[in-house]
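Q: Please design a sequence for this.
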C-alpha cells in the first residue's frame, strides 16, 4: 500500500514570519544522525528546522512548518504494563532535511514523512499492508528504520531515486518479542527482553548479535545509552521496592560488565557517554531531594564522581537538550543553541597529557615520561590515551600502561616481547625515580600459565558473581572467561571445574515462586528469539492471529464457554521456581563464519567438544542444569532433526526390506524403483558419514558404532547394485544387510526417553565389560587351539570318501555305524552301514570350527566332544574338565556377577543424558548449516528454566542430608532457601555423625579425667588417714 498526499489530512503551510516561534516553548528536539540539522517541535504544533553551520553557537533557523494533528507522548498500549510505560517515538530528522512526525490518524498511516525543502510527502510502500508505526529513526547511511510493536516487526526503507522522494522497503525483519527497543544512529537495534532480563545489541545488516548482557531480575530497565563508537553500553535500572538504582557499563565487544554503580541516595535522571574518541567519560544528572546535579565519572570504574555543574553554569538550558559527539544542543526562548562540552589534547612532542579543567580555563598538564634517548634511538616510539584515560607508551623496551591516581603516577601494566624485536632493558639500571617502578610486575598481562593463578582467576570471577550468599545475574558474563575455555580447563584442571560446577549448580535469579505454572519440570523459561527476514508465512500468520483474536473478542460466549474450558482442562498447574544455567557461551558458536569451510569441517563450541571429557560430563549431568540444558536443546531443535533423520532412514530401510521380502510378488518396475531409492538414500547417508570422518578421523575409526553404521549403509547399496546388474538377488548379502538395517533401526530408540535409559545401560555396561570379554575370548582361543592339536586327524581326510584308517580322530571312525541283526537277535559284525560324517562330526579338524565348538561348550553344549570316549582319552577328559570349571563355572558366573555390579553402579539417568548429548552434538556438527548454528534462540547466551518446587525441594533435601554422590556438594544460596522455605544451616548426616564421634571422644576423655581425679582423691584420703594415725 502506498501513502499519497492526495488522501492526507495534514496541512503544511510555510510561515511568512521567520521569527514567529521566537518565544514559543519547545517541547521536543531531535538531531540528524551526523549532526547536520536539528528539528524542534513547539508547543503550538509548529516544527522548526535549524542547521548546524561551522562553530556558531546559535543555530540558523531555516523555516517553520505548522501541522494541526500532531500526537505527542502517546502511550503504546500493546506492550505497556504496570512496570513499563512505553511512548511512541516517531519524531526524527535525517541529514537530508526529511522529518517524520506522529499524526492523530491511522488512514492511511499514523505518521507522515515530508521534506522540508520541497514540502512534499515521502511515498512509502509496505509489503505487509502495514498502517501503524511505533518507532522511527533515520540512520547515518540515509536509510529509515521503523518498528511496529503489534507484530514485533521492523522495516528498513532506502531511497530508490536521487531526489529522496520515493522510498522502497528494502527488508522486513521479524523481531518476535521485546519490551523496550532503541535504534542507534549506526543502525543497531538494542532490544530488551523482560522475560529473561536480557539486553541484546543486533546488527540488522547481517542479522547477528553484537553483544548480550543480563540485568538483575528485581530491577526494571530505565534507560540505555551507547557510546558514539558503539564500544560501551551503559544501562540504568531501578528497584522500585528498595529505591535502589544501578548503573552498569558493559563492553559491547566482550559483553563483560566493566563496572557497576549502586546507590540508594539519589536517582539518576539522565546520563550520556562523552569523549568517545579521546577517553570516555560518563556524564549523568542525579536528583537528590529535588536538587539536580551533574557529575562526571570514569565509566571503567564508576568511582570518585567529579562535580560537573560548571559545564552547564553559563548555559541557560531548559528541559529539552541533547548531548551528542561531545556537543550539547539546548533550547532557550524558542531558539536552539549548540556548544562544545569537552576537549582533550595530546602533545606528542613532550609526551604530556593536557586536559581542560571543568571549573576554570586553566589547562592542567601532566608529565607522563621523559623522552629518553638510548643509543641514538628515541626511547618512546608512540604514545596514546586509552578510552579509560590510562596512558599507553610503546617504547624500545616494551609496552607500558600508566594510570594516574591522586597519589601520583603508577605503572598499571607492562609487557615485553621475548624475541629480539625489542631491545633488552633492565629497569633497575636506569636512573629514574624509584617510585616510578614500585608496582612493576613483568609480564602482568600475559596469559596465566601457573595452575595456582588459573584457580585464583576463576575464583575471582565466581566471587564477583556470588555476593552475600546470592548470585548477581548482571555479573554472569564474567563466567564466560571460564566456560569459553571449558575444554582446556576441564582437561588440565578437572578439580577446579568440578568445584566451579558445584558453586553454580543452583542459580536463582529471582525468589518469586510462579503459582499455577503449566510448564513441565525443567522446561525452558522465557522467550528466546533470533531476528530473521519476514516471509509470506509470517505475514499470513499475523493476519490469521489478528482475525482469531478479534473473533474471540467479538464472540465472548465462544471464548468463555468453549476455548477457556478446553485450555483449563488440559492445563495441569503447579508451583515452580526459576533457575539459570550460568554457562555463558558454552553452547554458542563463534560469530565469524566461513560457510564453505564449515561445510567441510564444522567449527565446534565447548558443548560439542565435551564428548571427550567423560569425567566432567558425568559430573555435569548430575546437576539439574545438565538435564535442563539437554531438555532445552532436544525440545528446541533436537527432536525435529532426529525425527527427520529417522524418517529418512526408515524410508531407506523399507525400500530395501520390501524389495528382498516381496520381490516375487511385486512388479519389476516397483522393484527397480525400490532398489534405486535404496542406492540414492544410501549415498545420502554416506555423505554424512564422510563429513563425520573428515571432522575427526581418529574418533570416527575408533568408534565401533560408526563402523556398524557404515556396514548398515554400504551392504544394502552393494546388494542393490549387484541385484540390478545380475537381475538376481544376492541372498547371503541381502540377509546380513537386512540384519544390520533392522538393528540400526532399533538403535534409533536410544534417544527416546521411554527406552533410552535401557539402551544407555546396555551400552555403558558393554563398554565396561569389554576388557573382561577380551580375556574370556583369549581363554576360548587357548582351549580351542589345544583341542585342535589333540583331536585333529593324523592325515588328510575327505568327507566324501572313506579313509579306512585306524586314526581315532578320523571322522569316518567317529561316524555312527549300523549293524544288522539276524532273526535270532544276534548282531552281525561282518556287515555294517556307516552314516557318512559331516563337518560337525569332528569340529576340531579346522581351527575356525574348533573355536566355534569351544564357544558352544561355553554355553553348555558338549555335542562336539560326544564322539570320543572320555574314559579312553584322559587328555581330552583333563582339558574338558579344566575348561568346564575355569570357563563355564568360574568365569561365566564371575561375568554374571560383574555385569550385575556394573548395572547397579551405572547411573542410568546420567548415562542417558550423556547419550542424548552425543546425539545432539552429532546433529549440530553434521546436519546443521553454518547459519543455523548461529541462531540465538537455539544457542542462547544463558538459559533459564522452570523447576517444580516439590521436586526441587526433595532434591535439595537429599543434598542436605548427605545423599549427594558427586565430587563436591552443590552450593545452596540464601535466595534458594528463601524461595523453597527450607530451614537454614540444617546439619547433614555426615555432620551429625562427626558430632556423635566427637561426643564419644569427649566422653572417653571425661571418664579418664574422672578416674584420675578419683585416684587422686583416694590418695589424699589415705594420706590424711596416715597423718591422723601418726598424730594419735
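A: Design:
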Amino acid at each position: 500500500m502506498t501513502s499519497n498526499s492526495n488522501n492526507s489530512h495534514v496541512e503544511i503551510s510555510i510561515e511568512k514570519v521567520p521569527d514567529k516561534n521566537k518565544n514559543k516553548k519547545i517541547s521536543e528536539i531531535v538531531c540528524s544522525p551526523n549532526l547536520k540539522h536539528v528539528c524542534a517541535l513547539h508547543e503550538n504544533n509548529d516544527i522548526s528546522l535549524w542547521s548546524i553551520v561551522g562553530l556558531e553557537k546559535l543555530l540558523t533557523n531555516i523555516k517553520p512548518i505548522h501541522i494541526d494533528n500532531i500526537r505527542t507522548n502517546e502511550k503504546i498500549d500493546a506492550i505497556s504494563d504496570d512496570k513499563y510505560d512505553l511512548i511512541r517515538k516517531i519524531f526524527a530528522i535525517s541529514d537530508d532535511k526529511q522529518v517524520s512526525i506522529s499524526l492523530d490518524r491511522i488512514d492511511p498511516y499514523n505518521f507522515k514523512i515530508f521534506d522540508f525543502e520541497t514540502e512534499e510527502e515521502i511515498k512509502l510502500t509496505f509489503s505487509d499492508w502495514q498502517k501503524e508505526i511505533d518507532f522511527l529513526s533515520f540512520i547515518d547511511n540515509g536509510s529509515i528504520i521503523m518498528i511496529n510493536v503489534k507484530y514485533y516487526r521492523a522495516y528498513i526503507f532506502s531511497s530508490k531515486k536521487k531526489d529522496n522522494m520515493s522510498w522502497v522497503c528494502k527488508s522486513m525483519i521479524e523481531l518476535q518479542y521485546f519490551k523496550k527497543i532503541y535504534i542507534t544512529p549506526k543502525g543497531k537495534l538494542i532490544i530488551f527482553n523482560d522475560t529473561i532480563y536480557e539486553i541484546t545489541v543486533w546488527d540488522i545488516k547481517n542479522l547477528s548479535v553484537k553483544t548480550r548482557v543480563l540485568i538483575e531480575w528485581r530491577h526494571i530497565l530505565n534507560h540505555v545509552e551507547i557510546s558514539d563508537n558503539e564500544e560501551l553500553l551503559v544501562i540504568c535500572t531501578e528497584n522500585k521496592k528498595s529505591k535502589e538504582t544501578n548503573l552498569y557499563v558493559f563492553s559491547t565487544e566482550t559483553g563483560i560488565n566493566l563496572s557497576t554503580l549502586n546507590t540508594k541516595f539519589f536517582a539518576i535522571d539522565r546520563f550520556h557517554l562523552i569523549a568517545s574518541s579521546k577517553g570516555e567519560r560518563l556524564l549523568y544528572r542525579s536528583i537528590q531531594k529535588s536538587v539536580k546535579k551533574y557529575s562526571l565519572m570514569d565509566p571503567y570504574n564508576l568511582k570518585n564522581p567529579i562535580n560537573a555543574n560548571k559545564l552547564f553554569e553559563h548555559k541557560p538550558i531548559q528541559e529539552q537538550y541533547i548531548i551528542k559527539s561531545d556537543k550539547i544542543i539546548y533550547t532557550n526562548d524558542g531558539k536552539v543553541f549548540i556548544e562544545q562540552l569537552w576537549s582533550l589534547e595530546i602533545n606528542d612532542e613532550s609526551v604530556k597529557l593536557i586536559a581542560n579543567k571543568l571549573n576554570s580555563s586553566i589547562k592542567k598538564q601532566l608529565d607522563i615520561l621523559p623522552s629518553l634517548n638510548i643509543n641514538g634511538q628515541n626511547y618512546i616510539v608512540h604514545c596514546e590515551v586509552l578510552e579509560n584515560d590510562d596512558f599507553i607508551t610503546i617504547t624500545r623496551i616494551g609496552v607500558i600502561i600508566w594510570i594516574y591516581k591522586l597519589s601520583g603516577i603508577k605503572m598499571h601494566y607492562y609487557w615485553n616481547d621475548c624475541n629480539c624485536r625489542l631491545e633488552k632493558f633492565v629497569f633497575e639500571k636506569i636512573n629514574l625515580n624509584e617510585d616510578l617502578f614500585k608496582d612493576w610486575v613483568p609480564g602482568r598481562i600475559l596469559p596465566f600459565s601457573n595452575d595456582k593463578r588459573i584457580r585464583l582467576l576463576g575464583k575471582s570471577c565466581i566471587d564477583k558473581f556470588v555476593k552475600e550468599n546470592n548470585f548477581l545475574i548482571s555479573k554472569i558474563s564474567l563466567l564466560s572467561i571460564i566456560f569459553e575455555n571449558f575444554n582446556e580447563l576441564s582437561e588440565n584442571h578437572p578439580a577446579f571445574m568440578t568445584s566451579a560446577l558445584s558453586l553454580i549448580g543452583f542459580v536463582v535469579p529471582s525468589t518469586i515462586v510462579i503459582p499455577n505454572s503449566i510448564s513441565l519440570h525443567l522446561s525452558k523459561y522465557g522467550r528466546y528469539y533470533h531476528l530473521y527476514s519476514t516471509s509470506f508465512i509470517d505475514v499470513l500468520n499475523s493476519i490469521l492471529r489478528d482475525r482469531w483474536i478479534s473473533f474471540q473478542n467479538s464472540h465472548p460466549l465462544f471464548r468463555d464457554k468453549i476455548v477457556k474450558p478446553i485450555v483449563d482442562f488440559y492445563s495441569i498447574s503447579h508451583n515452580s521456581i526459576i533457575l539459570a544455567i550460568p554457562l555463558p557461551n558454552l553452547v554458542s558458536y563463534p560469530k565469524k563464519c566461513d560457510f564453505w569451510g564449515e561445510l567441510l569441517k564444522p567449527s565446534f563450541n565447548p558443548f560439542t567438544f565435551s564428548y571427550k571429557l567423560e569425567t566432567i560430563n558425568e559430573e555435569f549431568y548430575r546437576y539439574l542444569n545438565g538435564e535442563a540444558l539437554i531438555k532445552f536443546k532436544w525440545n528446541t531443535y533436537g527432536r525435529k532433526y532426529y525425527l527427520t533423520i529417522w524418517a529418512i532412514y526408515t524410508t531407506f530401510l523399507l525400500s530395501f526390506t520390501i524389495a528382498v521380502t516381496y520381490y516375487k510378488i511385486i512388479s519389476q518396475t516397483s522393484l527397480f524403483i525400490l532398489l534405486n531409492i535404496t542406492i540414492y538414500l544410501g549415498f545420502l547417508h554416506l555423505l554424512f558419514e564422510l563429513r563425520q570422518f573428515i571432522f575427526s578421523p581418529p574418533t570416527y575409526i575408533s568408534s565401533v558404532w560408526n563402523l556398524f553404521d557404515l556396514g548398515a549403509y554400504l551392504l544394502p547399496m552393494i546388494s542393490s547394485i549387484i541385484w540390478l546388474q545380475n537381475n538376481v538377488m544376492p541372498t547371503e548379502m541381502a540377509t546380513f544387510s537386512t540384519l544390520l538395517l533392522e538393528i540400526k533401526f532399533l538403535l534409533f530408540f536410544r534417544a527416546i526417553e521411554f527406552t533410552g535409559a535401557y539402551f544407555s545401560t546396555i551400552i555403558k555396561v558393554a563398554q565396561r565389560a569389554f576388557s573382561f570379554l577380551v580375556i574370556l575370548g583369549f581363554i576360548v582361543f587357548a582351549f580351542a587351539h589345544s583341542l585342535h592339536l589333540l583331536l585333529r586327524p593324523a592325515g588328510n581326510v575327505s568327507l566324501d570318501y572313506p579313509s579306512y584308517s585306524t586314526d581315532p580322530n578320523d571322522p569316518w571312525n567317529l561316524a555312527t555305524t549300523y549293524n544288522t541283526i539276524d532273526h535270532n537277535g544276534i548282531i552281525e559284525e561282518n556287515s555294517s552301514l556307516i552314516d557318512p560324517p559331516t563337518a560337525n562330526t569332528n569340529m576340531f579338524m579346522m581351527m575356525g570350527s574348533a573355536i566355534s565348538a569351544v564357544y558352544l561348550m561355553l554355553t553348555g553344549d558338549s555335542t562336539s566332544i560326544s564322539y570320543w570316549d572320555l574314559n579312553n582319552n584322559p587328555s581330552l577328559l583333563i582339558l574338558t574338565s579344566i575348561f568346564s570349571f575355569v570357563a563355564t563355572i568360574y568365569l561365566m558366573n564371575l561375568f554374571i556377577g560383574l555385569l550385575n555390579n556394573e548395572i547397579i553402579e551405572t547411573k542410568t539417568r546420567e548415562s542417558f543424558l550423556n547419550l542424548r548429548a552425543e546425539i545432539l552434538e552429532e546433529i549440530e556438527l553434521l546436519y546443521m548449516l553454518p547459519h543455523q548454528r548461529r541462531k540465538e534462540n537455539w544457542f542462547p547466551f544463558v538459559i533459564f528454566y522452570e523447576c517444580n518446587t516439590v521436586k526441587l525441594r526433595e532434591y535439595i533435601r537429599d543434598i542436605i542430608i548427605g545423599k549427594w554422590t558427586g565430587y563436591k556438594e552443590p552450593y545452596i544460596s540464601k535466595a534458594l532457601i528463601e524461595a523453597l522455605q527450607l530451614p537454614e544451616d540444617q546439619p547433614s548426616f555426615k555432620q551429625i555423625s562427626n558430632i556423635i564421634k566427637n561426643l564419644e571422644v569427649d566422653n572417653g576423655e571425661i571418664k579418664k579425667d574422672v578416674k584420675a581425679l578419683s585416684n587422686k582423691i583416694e590418695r589424699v584420703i589415705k594420706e590424711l588417714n596416715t597423718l591422723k594415725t601418726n598424730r594419735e
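Q: Thanks. Anything notable?
A: The chain has a mean pLDDT of 79. Residues 989-1031 form the longest helix (43 residues).
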